[in-house]
Amino acid sequence: MSKLCYYEVLSVQKNCSEGELKKAYRRMAMKYHPDRNPDDKEAEHKFKEVKEAYEVLSDPQKRAAYDQFGHAGVDANAGGGFGGGGFGGFGDIFEDIFGGGRSQGGANAAYRGSDLQYNLELTLEEAVFGTTVDIRIPTKKTCDTCGGTGAKDGSTPETCTTCHGQGQVRIQQGFFSVQQTCPHCHGAGTVISDPCNTCHGEGRVEEHKTLEVKIPEGVDTGDRIRLSGEGEAGINGGPAGDLYVQMHLKAHELFTRDGNDLHCVMPIHFSMAALGGTLKVPTLSGEVNLKVPAETQTGKVFRLRGKGVKSVRSSAVGDLLCRVDVETPVNLTAKQKKLLEQFEAALAKGGKKHSPQQHGWGNKAKTFFEDVKGWFEGEKEK
């Protein structure tokens, strides 16, 4: 059986440009592609002819041989790959362009609903001991009026004529293609000419729902609780998404949290710091007595073991770390000031043994100033 002229197969002139050849090829290939003509043997045969013609004419050397010798000039080079319907690696390229002849999605494809996130603020006590809270969230559920189809009762969605139900289209540049969402149906694969009055064609409606969430002991900022199936409703009967409840701890007036440990600043007056004493310290489980030793300095940290937070992931319990802040007295009376002056005078008689840090720092400062003075004097002599 004689073959048709390759130029006639593509409906182009013999002197057509490369751009005209590509344009004609794309038009003919899309027209006869098997996905658009299922069970059509004639279209399948024409599609093979189009591929064979373009494979030859798009190659400058093969095109020159074909123009001079006709089919005899390219049959040998093709290695028998054309006439028998086998195209070697050429079919792989076409699968890349046309998606392997398989539609993705489609008019009746089911899609999972979107996941949602809810930011939940907790007090430190709620996070440490656990609690149960009710949250009210906005979401989307399947429209009861249309059953999720988006179409008015008595009508049905129609297959999109642009993507033919695939929900996606391909933009081709030569043998390369880019797949994108169909601009006509926005990926649904269908269009609704008579939309539902309740959901206006979306198939889902907005609503608020209240959920009870159990917060386990020891959660911290950034921890999430997953509520399966409590997200947005799916499309076309697809499963609902999930709801993620993310924890955020409010600032506490006494404590700051660092993992499983708690920190607090503990102001004490300077007489207790000097003489020592017992201080009542608040913890999340009640007050405890803390013995402050004599001569305690500002910045000293006391660790109360087991008075922190129990980990949400294990049985480990953190500690409470109390940092001492020696407070200077204010609003003194004349009598109190007089007593302090007498106290200061008594300290001065003892020298550095009463204030070793102060004297140590003073000696370092004196050495520093002497070094600076020496440097300036040396510079003047130069």
Can you walk through the features of this model?
- By secondary structure, this protein is α+β, with helices and mostly antiparallel strands.
- Strand 4 and strand 5 form a beta hairpin.
- It has helices spanning 6-9, 18-32, 41-57, 60-69, 72-78, 90-98, 124-129, 270-275, 334-350, 356-381, and strands spanning 116-122, 131-142, 158-159, 168-173, 176-181, 190-191, 204-215, 224-227, 243-249, 256-258, 261-269, 277-283, 286-292, 301-304, 320-327.
- The radius of gyration is 41 Å and the shape is elongated.
- Among the domains are: 6-101, DnaJ domain (Helix Hairpins); 256-327, Urease metallochaperone UreE, N-terminal domain (HSP40/DNAj peptide-binding domain), CATH 2.60.260; 337-381.
- Helix 4 (60-69) crosses helix 5 (72-78).
- Helix content is 31%, strand content 25%.
- It has a 4-stranded mixed beta sheet. A 3-stranded mixed beta sheet has the order 1-9-8. A two-stranded antiparallel ribbon has the order 2-7.
